[in-house]
Amino acid sequence: MAIRHVSEGVAALRDQWWLLVLVVAALGVTIVLVTELVTGRSDAAPIANAPDQGYVVAAPSTRAPSEAQLACAGVGEQRLVKVSLGDQWMWFCEGDRLVESSAITSGSVARGHGTPLGTWHIVSRETNRYLNGPDYRVFVRYWLPFFRDFGFHDSPWQRFPYGDRTQYKTNGSRGCIRVPGPTMAELYRWVSVGTTVTITP
């Protein structure tokens, strides 16, 4: 009698072998998932060139490069100062490497004093001098002209935040690029006569 029951059990298992395979496979997957959750590790290989937020990255979990990291990509210049008037921001680039970046204040476009767009070069490096105009005379510690009377300088008299994308339109400079004092000192030390400056909208 016992032998007959065993034979019937074996026959039943033979007819439902696929169920046993599913149970074993599910058990294996569960063990792998629990192991990864506990250890925080995975043997899955990273996917090369997987897109993440519009950038090519090494793996799906890699964070996209920030704007600052991309600012100097493909510059191809030994040293370059990039200025974006729309962003009210500047970057110091050495090759593809970002050296420094800073908020700035550019020309007051609402009053007809826009900062000139284009590619320029530092003309001279001056310290402790007065900037003179028809109705102003201001003292600056650092002055880096790049085109006619337009240049970079510190502006201790400015009373609104650098980088403000609205205030500069009515309260900005006469066309120069105002830079916070400590950053202006660094820019003065970093550039030389002939350093390229690009100014974009």
From TrEMBL:
Keyword tRNA processing recorded: no
Cell wall biogenesis/degradation recorded as keyword: yes
Pathway note: Cell wall biogenesis; peptidoglycan biosynthesis
CDD domains reported in the protein's UniProt record: YkuD_like
TM spans (from-to): 17-38
Cellular component, GO, one term: extracellular region
Active-site annotation: 153, 176
Record-given protein name: ErfK/YbiS/YcfS/YnhG family protein
Organism the protein comes from: Gordonia bronchialis (strain ATCC 25592 / DSM 43247 / BCRC 13721 / JCM 3198 / KCTC 3076 / NBRC 16047 / NCTC 10667) (Rhodococcus bronchialis)
